[in-house]
Each structure stands twice: as structure tokens, then as C-alpha cells.
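Regression check, adenosine-3',5'-cyclic-monophosphate case 152:
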Amino acid sequence: MGAIILADALASKAKLLSEVPLFSALARTELMRVASVAERMKAGPGEVLAEEGKPGRTFFVIEKGHASVVAGRRRVARLGPGDFFGEMALLDQGPRSASVVADEPMTVYTVEARDFGRLLEDVPFLTKKILRGVSNRLRAAEEAPSYVWNRL
Ligand code: CMP
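Current build output:
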């Protein structure tokens, strides 16, 4: 009985995840894999989800709401539904490159560091989408004025 309830909860989380663009092209088994490690959480306006210079242990994907990416005192990007953040500190184990602050009430999915690496190995298509997103950001930063680039 407990196992059935658990499987139902996982399946409904997988369904919610399938509506987030980062995950929308994943196969059902891959969605279930993401659902097994992703937690859905709310954040209030002003909440600091990542803090520049601090170690980071969590990867985030935005379901609802917007957040500002702040490096130094400058806002370098604004992220919204479907965007992800927090991958850099997990990938290179360095400090957070920027702070990410909720601009309004948000719903996000979180994946903890211990699960993130394994998830990228198990779901190569997700890895490809994250790499594409990181490349886009690098391109945008290269096109940005040098004062922004200097702060990345
Ligand atoms: P991380 O360094 O772990 O924590 C802060 C996050 O902000 C970072 O990962 C990226 O996900 C995100 N980030 C940093 N710089 C930018 C940028 N220029 N544009 C969009 N997102 C960024």
C-alpha cells in the first residue's frame, strides 16, 4: 500500500516536471528519474536562493516566478519559468558566482549536489540542455559591456 502511494506521488511529480521546458522533452522513465531526486519548494520575495562567494549545494529549476542574478552590486540577469541556476558551483565545486534573489513568490525544483552528478550521467539529454543554457549565457556575457563581463 505504502509503495503504491509513493509511486503515485512520484508519477504526479513527474507530470508537473514535464510541464517545465527544461524537462519537457524527457521520456517518462527519465522524468521519473528526475522526480526521484527533485524537491518542489516555495520561495518568498527577497529570499536569497544562492549567495555569491559562498559554497553551493543545490541546483534549481524555476517553475513559477522570477529571480534576479546579482554579481557585486549589479543585476546581470533575470531568470524566469523554465530557467535553471546553481549549476556552476556544483560542476566546478567553486563558490557561487553570483547571488540569486527571488523577485516575487516563486516555486522552484531543487536537486541536491549528491544527486546532481548522477542525474546528469543518467539523463544525457538533460546534460545537453544544461550545457546549451550555459553556452547561451556565456555568449550573452561576451556580448555584454565589459563591466558585466569583469564581474562574472
Ligand atoms: P552558481 O555560481 O552555482 O550560483 C549562482 C548562479 O547564477 C550560477 O551558478 C548560475 O546558474 C547563475 N548565473 C551566474 N551568472 C549568470 C549570468 N550572467 N546569467 C544568468 N545566470 C547566471
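Comparison notes: The chain has six helices and eight strands. The chain has a mean pLDDT of 93. No diff flagged against the previous build.
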